[in-house]
Model the fold of this input.
Amino acid sequence: MSKVPADLKYTPTHEWLRIDGDIATLGITDYAQSELGDIVYVDLPTPGRVLAAGDSFCSVESVKTVSEVYAPIAGTVTAVNPALASQSELLNSDPYEGGYLIKMQIADSTAVNALLNADSYKALLG
Done:
């Protein structure tokens, strides 16, 4: 069974968000990384990039496939995870902490309300 921390928000496309004021930290879920397999490369966006909800902002390459990661809400990328440049396997081993992808300034905090809570995400996974 995949880990689904209760304090995060989730999307049906297996991204997670940790909200801290008007900053969101984003990554892929434990379920997503397990489906991808061993991750070998992450293509991160440049800080300052403005994202609309639904925009592809990152690609994750595994031994199986390349997958796009989508912005669940609108905002501006404020930071990327520098560790992923040399340690992309952090997405597999620590998807909710050391393997986060980006931090972003949230454009509209009410958009977070439309995301899934942990129980809803667990139900989606079955």
About this structure: The first strand starts at residue 9 and ends at 10. DSSP finds three helices and nine strands in the chain. Helices lie at 30-36, 90-93, 118-125. Strands lie at 9-10, 15-20, 23-28, 39-43, 50-51, 56-62, 66-70, 75-80, 102-106.
